[in-house]
């Protein structure tokens, strides 16, 4: 009966989230000893659809123990054993399995019990997710993971010391943090890659061109331009960026992705939020919700050239492309050239243009906040789009 209760009790992620935010507040008044004793089943459900807050609770309690919190050792050891019985979501490697093993390693450190498997699995998950530094699940979940391990960093560093596997994990996290800063604008707002919304990191003043398997980042003058070319294998939290180009100038994002709507928004209208036309990719025959994944290994013929004064996006061959346009702004078509304004920039598209049509895209700006974007669809051969900031 106790196992069944542990599997189904407190299936709400919101409850665990509220618990986490209560105990993680500075100078909180929660009695952790009593909290562990009274909520042992709820804190460690064996199966849970989204147990990230349970993972964060384990990490937070372990970090507080390192900071001087006193808890009965038997209670803590019993909590650790129950925690390790939870389903970690492996073999699927995602933000969930990452935070699970951060919590497991943190509890190992807090109880002074070295478990080689926990550390090695954390390394395997980190190695897959971070890859060459570019997080496969996008910016939001990368920040979730770095925030999670950052909370327990001092504890883990003290416990594992010069352990070779721990050193490899640290190197990956450092590469990930550098990538987050490279995909942020002058104000530190990260690009909308994968499921994401408005989030900030410490801004970087790096200049240069940085090549990753999934993207090329151009940081030239005041521009930050992300040229996506998604090639990584399946990732749980992923959107159809494909060959999408994201553009920022100084502290302002000009062209962004669709962001991450809430679960309720998606479930209420999945075709609205999972349509590839919410992104500014070149169009293909598989651009229907979810099926766009098969395009990832398709050869691309899209180039980006970034100068201090402007950028050019060059589409070779016959293409249908999309760009946003401000509401109330008219586009001007003259021969093989179209001009319009968007977000403080002048867009000029030229080439052998066959057709122009208007469309809409939906963007999640912040949690549960959305906006409808007016979009131009341009069809033609050898199209070139120039973007120049004019405000």
Q: What CATH architecture label of the largest domain applies? A: Distorted Sandwich
* Alpha-beta classification: alpha+beta
Distance between the termini: 67 Å
Give the DSSP E fraction (strand runs of 2 or more residues): 25-35%
Largest sheet: 6 strands, antiparallel
Number of strands: 11
Our Rg estimate from Cα atoms comes to 23 Å
What is the name of the CATH topology of the largest domain?
Answer: Beta-galactosidase, Chain A, domain 5
Shape: elongated
CATH level-1 class of the largest domain: Mainly Beta
Mean pLDDT: 90
The total of helices stands at 13
Reading side by side through the largest sheet, how are the strands ordered?
6-7-11-10-9-8
Order of helices and strands: HHHHHHHHHHHEEEEEHHEEEEEE
Total of domains: 2
Helix content estimate:
25-40%
Low-confidence stretches: 1-10
What does this 3D model show about the protein?
With about 400 residues, this protein is an alpha+beta fold. The chain folds into two domains: about 1-180, no CATH class; about 210-390, Beta-galactosidase, Chain A, domain 5, CATH 2.70.98.70. The chain has 13 helices and eleven strands. The strands form two sheets. The chain has a six-stranded antiparallel sheet, with no helix packed on it. α2 (about 15-25) runs parallel beside α5 (about 50-65). The longest helix has 19 residues, at about 165-180.
């Amino acid at each position: 009966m106790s196992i069944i209760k542990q599997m189904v009790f407190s299936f709400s992620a919101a409850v665990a989230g509220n618990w986490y935010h209560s105990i993680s507040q500075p100078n909180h008044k929660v009695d952790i000893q009593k909290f562990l004793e009274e909520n042992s089943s709820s804190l460690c459900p064996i199966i849970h659809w989204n147990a990230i807050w349970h993972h964060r609770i384990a990490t937070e309690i372990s970090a507080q123990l390192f900071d001087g919190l006193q808890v009965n050792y038997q209670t803590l050891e019993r909590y650790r054993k129950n925690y390790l019985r939870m389903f970690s979501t492996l073999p699927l490697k995602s933000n969930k399995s990452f935070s699970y093993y951060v919590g497991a390693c943190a509890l190992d450190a807090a109880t002074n019990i070295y478990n080689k498997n926990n550390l090695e699995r954390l390394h395997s998950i980190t190695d897959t997710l971070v890859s060459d530094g570019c997080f496969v699940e996008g910016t939001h979940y990368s920040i979730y993971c770095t925030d999670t391990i950052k909370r327990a960093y001092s504890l883990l560093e003290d416990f594992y010391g010069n352990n070779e596997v721990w050193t490899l994990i640290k190197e990956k996290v450092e590469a990930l943090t550098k990538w987050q800063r490279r995909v942020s604008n002058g104000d530190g707002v990260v690009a909308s890659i994968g499921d994401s919304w408005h989030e900030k990191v410490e801004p970087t003043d790096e200049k240069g061109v940085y090549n990753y398997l999934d993207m090329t980042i151009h940081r030239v003058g005041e521009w930050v331009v992300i040229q996506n070319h998604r090639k990584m294998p399946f990732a749980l939290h992923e959107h159809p960026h494909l060959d999408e180009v994201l553009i920022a100038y100084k502290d302002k994002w000009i062209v962004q992705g669709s962001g991450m709507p809430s679960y309720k928004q998606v479930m209420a209208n999945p075709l609205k939020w999972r349509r590839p036309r919410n992104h500014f990719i070149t169009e293909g025959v598989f651009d229907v919700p979810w099926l766009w994944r098969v395009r990832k290994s398709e050869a691309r013929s899209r180039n980006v050239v970034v100068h201090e004064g402007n950028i050019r996006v060059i589409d070779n061959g016959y293409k249908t492309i999309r760009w946003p346009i401000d509401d109330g702004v008219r586009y001007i078509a003259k021969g093989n050239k179209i001009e319009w304004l968007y977000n403080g920039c002048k867009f000029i598209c030229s080439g052998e243009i066959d057709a122009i049509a208007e469309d809409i895209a939906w963007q999640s700006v912040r949690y549960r906040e959305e906006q409808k974007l007016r979009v131009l669809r341009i069809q033609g051969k050898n199209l070139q789009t120039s973007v120049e900031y004019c405000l």
